[in-house]
């Protein structure tokens, strides 16, 4: 079985799998410019915090490749403009800005070394490829550490999609599940459908089926009942941004799950790479929360599900206070409360590129 990934860079061309039509079709789209990348991120062709950061890095590369005939000053102006443009595609996931800043820094370093435009573009291509390669390795390490908290026989509940499609490959929350399954553990996964975009029912179930992992899709509001009945051993989700105190922004509905898990004494874990941490934000109250258009709530697959004239609010993310989080699974190990101390200690010892 071919390893699942959300994007391919091949022969100087960028292709992404259109996640809007999964699981019924596998359609690959070519993105030819940073404008194409912006639209793909905005319109949910590609989604998941690490994945949108990675594809944005390639968006900068695509922009750079169109400016090979400019002088250095004009080239760098175009790079800065592209970074500013792409960072507005979606506001909540910090990985987007992290990847863009890394690409900008690489361009500045190459120019400072005296590289010509060809050399700068080659440096940017190496950096984008490295961001993708690193992400896959990081996710495997998250899986390795996450496996520690998974019982030999485990019923795991997850929300949204934090699998290979949401990252460069392998997965964060699904990476934990996958690592436990690959270690020979008896795994059953309850997959929240994740309204309104159904990332769980469409994407997570699609990944788990490919991997041969036993799973059941449940309605979002069935999760509490299963916990109450003692049918869930742990909850693990991904994240879009983690503040210095451990407060975590993730797909809408995550906060509700965390509260239910606490009430029912079910361990609740977050799985995320270091690029998802935003230590400039002291708490979750400082994290920007995206509200999307109401159509995604009022329609499913283009068909209306509400009375004509009804209005809706599509709040795409919520923030789970750190007091509800049992542990944060990272590629450097599992962080425990108090998160202000454990996160601060981690970032003192680890410098992000």
Class by SSE composition:
alpha/beta
CATH structural class of the largest domain? Alpha Beta
CATH fold call of the largest domain: Rossmann fold
Q: Calculate Rg over CA atoms.
A: 20 Å
User: How do the SSEs run, as a string of H and E?
Assistant: EEEHHHHHEHEHEHEEEHEEEHEEEEEEH
Number of helices: 11
> What distance lies between the first and last C-alpha atoms, to the nearest angstrom?
33 Å
Main sheet summary: 7 strands, mixed
- Would you count the extended β strands for me? 18
Overall pLDDT confidence: 96
Helix content: 40-55%
Under the CATH scheme, the architecture of the largest domain is 3-Layer(aba) Sandwich
Please provide a written account of the structure.
The chain is 41% helix and 19% strand. It is of the alpha/beta class and 353 residues long. The longest helix has 30 residues, at 117-146. The chain has two domains: 7-140, translation initiation factor eif-2b, domain 1 (Four Helix Bundle (Hemerythrin (Met), subunit A)), CATH 1.20.120.420; 142-349, Rossmann fold (3-Layer(aba) Sandwich). The protein is built from eleven helices and 18 strands. The two termini are 33 Å apart. Strands 6-5-4-7-10-17-18 form a seven-stranded mixed β-sheet. Strand 13 and strand 14 form a beta hairpin. Helix 1 (34-42) packs antiparallel against helix 2 (49-65), helix 2 packs parallel to helix 4 and helix 5 (117-146) packs across helix 6.
